[in-house]
Amino acid sequence: NSQLTILDSKRKQPSDTVKSVVDSKEKFEEEFVKHVETSLGRSMYNCDDLAAYQAASNTIRDALIIDWANTQQKQTIQDGKRVYYLSLEFLMGRAMDNALINLKCENNTRQSLNELGFNLEDVLNQEPDAALGNGGLGRLAACFVDSLSSKNYSGWGYGLNYQYGIFEQKIIDGYQIEAPDYWLKYSNPWVLDRNEIQIPVDFYGYVYEEHDPNTGKVKKNWNGGERVLAVASDFPIPGYNTDNTNNLRLWNAKPTNEFDFTKFNAGDYQQSVAAQQRAESITSVLYPNDNFESGKELRLKQQYFWVAASLHDIVRRFKKQHKQNWKKFPDQVAIQLNDTHPTLAVVELQRILVDLEGLEWNEAWSIVTSVFAYTNHTVMAEALEKWPVDLVGRLLPRHLEIIYDINFFFLKEVERKFPGDRDLIRRVSIIDESPKSVKMAFLAIVGSHKVNGVAELHSELIKTTIFKDFVKVFGAEKFTNVTNGITPRRWLRQANPKLAALIAEKLNDPEYDYLTNLGKLKQLEQFVDDEDFLKQWHAIKFDNKRKLAALVKELTDIDIDPSVLFDVQVKRIHEYKRQQLNIFAVIYRYLHIKELLSKGVTIEEIKKNYYIPKASIFGGKAAPGYYMAKTIIHLINKVGEVINADKEIGNLLKVVFIPDYNVSKAEIICPGSDLSNHISTAGTEASGTSNMKFALNGGLIIGTVDGANVEITREIGEENIFLFGNLAESVEELRHKHVFEGVNVPETLQVVFNAIEKEVFGPADEFKSLIDSIRYHGDYYLVTDDFELFLDAHKKLEKVYGHDGGDATDRGHLQEWVKKSVWSVANMGFFSSDRCIDEYAENIWNVEPSNQ
Ligand code: F58
């Protein structure tokens, strides 16, 4: 392409100089000092780790921006189809470490910083996490933008630039306390504030009709009552092993310059200014619920604000190249809806095409439905979005009309296909009649050409449960599966550099190309009987466990011995994820050990015949309004206090709760775990992605037959995972039985309840709701049904781990465990998010990567 060649030749000079910081120490140091002295206005004599982080980040960022600008220009000139990933959450974590890896300049940066008197790890630790997400859904979006860049797709993310990310969790007296996460305290070197990109977004107001004398038609117009500006902040997303650097555009809400003159003239200047300032509250804070929809007006405002700004940006970009050639729109644009949060985009695009661009309804609708696709992340009723019709009508009067029209035409089509089936029509209606509300998932299905679940089991479940009727209406082809994945750049190379290096060596891959071709891990199988290799593998795990133990010590002051089994459950706290099942089993173990000791059995005998030494490690945030989840956190902490203080027990059992679990901590916790828990009630966890992170880092899994555990088992082999529990197909029957025949608490669990009620772990009142929900309220999450199966699974796995614990030098009995670990990692290639993106590209977006 000649335009590109001209561009490249013109750009050579400046880009080469700036980009050389990635491989030249001199250049890095020169730029670093320049940033300290100019950008930061400080002197090198007074440069602390924080300033060093900022200067180093600015230095690397400058290089990144060259790639970013070139990528945008190339993509514009190539004019291919672009993918837009709309997600209300991007749980990015830290940017600097990731940039060093994707730009392959970690060594150069480390050495340069050393020469300047800094230590890379200390500098990296200065960066606050970009925690603009709750959990799995937000982190998935972050992995996906990494893969879009790394696999050379032209793909942007669109989201909100919250000033406060997910709250900081403090544990005080065993209770969760939430503190605001003002992550923008210092300037953020990884963002480009694009103050010139401003898009007005309207709310409220009224709809009026206009007669067009030329066509004789009636045109609908919306006159908004409140206007807010959407201002762009761009985050460059570097790909690994490629110059392709996509954009993540996050919007900020800002007041407009327009002024309410009626108020001003009435002398109410203060009020008028205050109203303007309220605009900023739209992007002020991330809603902290995981798998629960709170239905607040501000939340709906966030959704429309983000969707309107993003769509107008997309449409503007299209029109710049293709004018009003709308037929081409679906060849240029694919939009993925990450859950139903961006579903108003369907309505907004229809509004743009019909009201603003003058297209006929049907023509517009066929464009809309070819552009959108929707990903579902849950089957749980309380997490499915429903917005009251009144609220939608007040905030977005024209949109409500369009929703009604969409529903009307859709139901007409259903009636045509299934004449007389009134009940089907009632069931699939986008409008729920009581209470009157808009079902966003139904709107998303009707407005999309594909709907996908996030793991095989989950994708099957949505077809047979919540979306069953839509399979009948649209056919099964509309519904598909894309099993989730994780980026191996962050979750292997960055989190576990030593393991990544050992793998690179064994694969004879000094450039670490396997990180974008994760299937290559399979070659590790040939070393599974190689003694020296197993020794090295185990030593790395042991080293990572030491790091995790140091983190635990720093955050909780609890000592855990790295030679015991590290048994980890870190994820959002939720009854369906069943941290209560885990802590009840820990209590059972403790009580049993105490009983044995009281009968004169020695610690040595217990270790030999009953329980191996272990540390149970928990972490995760509870939604601030979720009482039951907070009670679980409190119980874990109280149990920990009692057990950890029990001198008789020593290192046979420890319980820790790591406060403020986040992406950066996950990068230390995942590599340092022997065993991780993914023990949701079967059928409730759509996929899970931390299961993949642990397995990729050589940890084994104890889990239920749920979400992606099923496919992990298929890939790594069932002899390498500890599965237990009732299957999804039995869940409904068991729940029914609980309600009609009562809950049967097994003897083992009864012992646990008794101890809690006898106040072994503090006032029993505190934990009453937890026990009552099981004993008297139907045990919805099947704790009683799975408890003893969980204990049995532990017995089995502890036999494999061996009875003496083990360190790097004493690992004879660990051989079997280490082999399972190697075997698992060798077969985790499937779970790279690169594979997900390729599947979306081929089956849903119809796009191809550019040849870089
Ligand atoms: C999670 N959902 C699923 N939702 O629970 C998990 O199984 C899956 O692996 C992951 O998505 C990625 O597909 C999830 O994290 C939320 O946090 C929403 C936030 C906004 C309110 C509704 C829940």
UniProtKB/TrEMBL annotation:
EC numbers for this chain: 2.4.1.1
Residue list for modification N6-(pyridoxal phosphate)lysine: K693
CDD domains recorded: GT35_Glycogen_Phosphorylase
Ion transport found in the keyword field: no
Coiled coil location: none
Cofactor: pyridoxal 5'-phosphate
BP GO annotations: glycogen catabolic process
GO terms of molecular function: glycogen phosphorylase activity; pyridoxal phosphate binding
Reactions catalysed according to its record: [(1->4)-alpha-D-glucosyl](n) + phosphate = [(1->4)-alpha-D-glucosyl](n-1) + alpha-D-glucose 1-phosphate
Keyword set, alphabetical order: Allosteric enzyme, Carbohydrate metabolism, Glycosyltransferase, Pyridoxal phosphate, Transferase
Gene Ontology CC: cytoplasm
Highest taxon, organism lineage: Eukaryota
Physiological role: Allosteric enzyme that catalyzes the rate-limiting step in glycogen catabolism, the phosphorolytic cleavage of glycogen to produce glucose-1-phosphate, and plays a central role in maintaining cellular and organismal glucose homeostasis.
Protein family according to the UniProt entry: Belongs to the glycogen phosphorylase family.
Protein name: Alpha-1,4 glucan phosphorylase
Organism for this UniProt entry: Spathaspora passalidarum (strain NRRL Y-27907 / 11-Y1)
Gene (name only): GPH1
